[in-house]
Amino acid sequence: MHQITPSDVVKRCLAGESFSGENLANLDLANQSLVGIDLSEANLSGTDLRNTDLTEANLNDANLTGANLSGAILHRTYLVGSNLTDTNLEDANLRGAFLSGSLFSGTNFRNADLRRATVGCPKCVIPGPFGTLTSFENANLEEAIFGEIKLKGIILLGANFKGTYLYEVDLSEAVYREAELEGAITKKGRN
């Protein structure tokens, strides 16, 4: 069986081929342009995707455990139901991304741009409260939508919540300063 190489991924992406359900674990795909790639249900655990352009990619139900996406461009990318345990998304551009139903545990969103992103999971309980904290520290959450979620073990210090829509969000076990929620739009939930 042929082992997939980084150059195979780039060539197949340019040809519009899908990687749905494929094993791409631990590959070095840093600094690549993979715009619009289909990585749904793919195993990307431990994969290096630093500074990679994944604009409008399909990462629904992908396993990104331990992947490094720092500085990656995930503009309007679908990450619905993805496993983001211990994933590094520091300084990533997630503007307009869809993260509904994704698993956050030890996920690093520090300084990430999540403007107009959608985050929520009515049936999910984020692991925590301490041990594997997820950080949105200094993230830009302007006009993002957080719906039906309990943010347990989440650090929100320094995050920008201007125009953020918090629909039935429970912040009772999150770490934040009350003043940082100024400008957020809330409906129900415990803030």
What does this structure look like?
- The model has no long low-confidence stretch (mean pLDDT 90).
- The chain has one helix at 6-14; strands at residues 118-120, 134-135, 145-150, 154-155, 165-170, 185-187.
- The protein has a 4-stranded parallel β-sheet, with no helix packed on it.
- The protein is mostly loops.
Write the topology of this structure.
Layout: H1 6-14, E1 118-120, E2 134-135, E3 145-150, E4 154-155, E5 165-170, E6 185-187
Parallel strand pairs: 1-3, 2-4, 3-5, 5-6
Brief descriptors of the model:
191 residues; little secondary structure; 1 helix; elongated
Strand order of the largest sheet: 1-3-5-6
The largest pleated sheet is described as: 4 strands, parallel
Strand proportion, as a percent range, falls in 5-15%
The helicity comes to under 10%
Could you list the spans in which at least 5 consecutive residues all have pLDDT below 50?
Answer: none
The number of E-state strands comes to: 6
Structural class by helix and strand composition: little secondary structure
> In whole angstroms, how far apart are the ends?
53 Å
Mean pLDDT: 90
Number of helices, where a helix is a run of at least 4 consecutive DSSP H or I residues? 1
Shape: elongated
- The radius of gyration is 16 Å
Reading the helices and strands in chain order gives HEEEEEE
